[in-house]
Amino acid sequence: MRALAEDGAGEAAAQAGRRRRAALWAHGWLALGVLVFALPIWITLVGSTHDAGTIGRGEVPLLPGSHAVENYATAWAEGGGRFRTTAAAAMLWNSALMALLIAAGKIAISLLSAYAVVFFSFPGRMAFFWMIFVTLMLPVEVRIIPTFQVMVDLSLINTMAGLVVPLVASATATLLFRQFFLTIPDEYVEAAKMDGAGPLRFFRDVVVPLSVTNIAALFVILFIYGWNQYLWPLLVVNDRSLETIVVGLSKMIGTGDAQNEWNTIMATAVLAMLPPVAVVVLMQRWFVRGLTETEK
């Protein structure tokens, strides 16, 4: 009996050792992945605290410098680069407004279109849905020339509406909301009819409250989508007062032998990262619930 007990204890110890080694191996790879991801961000953050000469000499400092306040103040109020761009404060406002309008517009239109497809019966209902779905195969880059011509005809070039309107429709969000609405029990619809609730009241009092977590999750994704837009704002806006932070950053970096003010550029890059990071951090709980929650 003692020998069996000793054998069992030895096997348990061996298994515990293997689990510890597996855990250390997994955590080591995870730590390496975090390091690879975080190192460029750290270098950008540190570079934004040094003077232009330090970065211009090709040095890659790993510790913060003493010029942080000066660099961030210059980027915030004046801009930077070989050709002075728009101040970061104005570009951040333009990007935030564009991203918010795109996210809100996509969610509103997708909610209504998915609601109509799921809860209404009309001729060609599925045909309209598949027409929406097919647009997933046509990204902005494919339809950019006719879209630009439409904006020209509507006199929406160099306007916030021209930035937002072509990017508002979303087949992806419509598809996701449709799939969620299909899981709403039919008993809810029957109960609403018995209470005398019309389609708009059922949408407002039942469907939208049930969709809050999904809306929050999609808002995070769509806000970042709008924030990161580059090609369309670059094409449709020439007015520097409407310049977005992503486009402004690219214009701050000169070409050829241009002397770049890397300290100001890095400070602007750090400022550009803060709003989407804040949205993800503040809405993380809702984002996870929206992706994982299925109970009604």
Uncertain runs with pLDDT below 50, 5 residues or more?
Answer: none
The amount of beta strand, in percent, is under 5%
Task: Give the name of the CATH superfamily of the domain at 88-292.
Answer: MetI-like
Tally of extended strands? 0
Distance between the termini: 55 Å
Report Rg: 26 Å
Number of DSSP helices?
15
Mean pLDDT reading: 84
CATH fold label of the domain at 88-292: MetI-like fold
Order of helices and strands: HHHHHHHHHHHHHHH
Label the overall shape: flat
Provide the CATH top-level class of the domain at 88-292: Mainly Alpha
Structural class comes to mainly alpha
Q: What characterizes the major β-sheet?
A: none
Q: Helical content, roughly?
A: over 70%
Question: What is the CATH architecture descriptor of the domain at 88-292?
Answer: Orthogonal Bundle
